[in-house]
Write a structure and sequence with these properties.
Blueprint (H helix, E strand, L loop, with lengths): L1 H19 L3 E4 L2 E4 L5 E13 L4 E2 L5 E2 L14 E11 L18 E11 L7 E4 L4 E7 L1 H8 L10 H4 L3 E14 L9 E11 L1 H7 L8 E8 L8 E9 L3 H22 L1
Antiparallel strand pairs: 1-2, 3-6, 3-13, 4-5, 6-7, 7-8, 7-9, 8-10, 9-10, 10-11, 11-12, 12-13
Length: 267
C-alpha cells in the first residue's frame, strides 16, 4: 500500500510540476494559466432540468434554450437542459479569486447546454445519447455579468435568456455522457462527460482544440433534483483539459524513472 501511495504522490507531483511551468493564456477576453498537459481548467455552478420544448437557433447557427419550462425526469423524448456560469478559471497567480477577465474588467463566462437524452436506465450508470447534445459558452458584458453572478442557484433557470445574450465564446459537442448514481435524480452521484470544441472565437478554439480526432475537455459535476423536483439544486462542477498523448507518454516515462530509482535504492 505504501508503494501505491508513493506512486500516486509521484504522479500528482509530476502533473503539478508540468502545470507550474505553464504559460499564461489570453483568449476571448479572459485569462488563465495554460494547462496543456491536462488539469483543471475551471469551476462552475449550474441548474438543469428536463425539457420537451424545441430549441431555438442563435445568430451563429448555435442551438439555444427558448424556455425554462420543465417536465418530470422520465417523460418520453425529454432532453436534459441547463445553464450555468463559471466561478473561476485556473490561475496560479490568483488562486482564490474568480476575477478571470482580462484587464480586471467585469465580465462572466456563462453557458447553456441541451440535447442529452437518457439511453440506459441501469442504476449505478445511466448512459446518455449524445447524438443531439450541445454546449455553448458565452462571454458576457459587465451589465449581464452582474445579473447572472448575483442570481441564486435555486432560481438561476430564470436567467436562461441573459446567459445566452453574450458573445459566443466557444461551442462544444458531447462525445460521451454518463451519470454515475443510483437514480436519475443524481443524489449521491456524479455526472461525467467528454466534449470536443467545434467552434467559437478563433483564439479560443486555438487554445482549446489540442486533440486531433479526440475529446478536448472533460466535465465532472454534481446536482440533485430532490423528491419530485423539476429543477436541480446545488449544481457545481469542474472542467478539465484532457492530457495530450505526448504529455501522457512523458508522465509515464517520468514515473518509470521514479520507479527505477526506487528499485535501485532498495537494492
Amino acid at each position: 500500500m505504501k508503494y501505491v501511495t508513493s506512486f500516486i504522490g509521484a504522479a500528482a507531483l509530476a502533473v503539478a510540476s508540468f502545470n507550474a511551468s505553464a504559460a499564461t493564456v489570453s483568449a476571448g477576453g479572459v485569462v488563465w494559466d495554460e494547462v496543456a498537459n491536462g488539469g483543471v481548467l475551471g469551476n462552475f455552478n449550474f441548474q438543469q432540468w428536463y425539457s420537451t420544448t424545441a430549441y431555438g437557433v442563435g445568430s451563429q447557427g448555435q442551438q439555444t434554450i427558448t424556455s425554462n419550462s420543465a417536465v418530470p425526469i422520465l417523460t418520453p423524448n425529454a432532453y436534459l437542459t441547463g445553464i450555468g456560469v463559471f466561478t473561476s478559471l485556473n490561475d496560479g497567480r490568483q488562486q482564490f479569486s474568480n476575477q478571470y477577465c482580462e484587464g480586471a474588467v467585469s465580465c462572466a463566462l456563462t453557458f447553456a447546454f441541451g440535447g442529452l437524452k437518457v439511453a440506459s436506465l441501469t442504476p449505478g450508470e445511466f448512459i446518455f445519447d449524445t447524438s443531439a447534445a450541445w454546449l455553448n459558452v458565452y462571454f458576457q458584458s459587465p451589465a449581464i455579468a452582474s445579473v447572472v453572478n448575483n442570481s441564486s442557484n435555486s432560481t438561476f433557470r430564470n436567467q436562461f435568456a441573459n446567459v445566452q445574450n453574450g458573445t459566443l465564446w466557444a461551442t462544444f459537442s458531447f462525445d460521451s455522457a454518463i451519470l454515475r448514481a443510483q437514480s436519475l435524480s443524481g443524489s449521491g452521484g456524479f455526472f461525467e462527460a467528454m466534449l470536443s470544441v467545434t467552434g467559437g472565437l478563433p483564439d479560443v478554439v486555438a487554445a482549446l482544440d489540442r486533440q486531433s480526432g479526440m475529446s478536448d475537455i472533460s466535465i465532472w459535476s454534481q446536482a440533485a433534483f430532490g423528491s419530485n423536483g423539476l429543477y436541480s439544486s446545488g449544481g457545481s462542477g469542474r472542467v478539465e483539459l484532457i492530457p495530450t498523448p505526448a504529455s501522457i507518454a512523458l508522465l509515464g516515462l517520468g514515473l518509470l524513472g521514479l520507479a527505477g530509482a526506487r528499485r535501485f535504492k532498495k537494492a
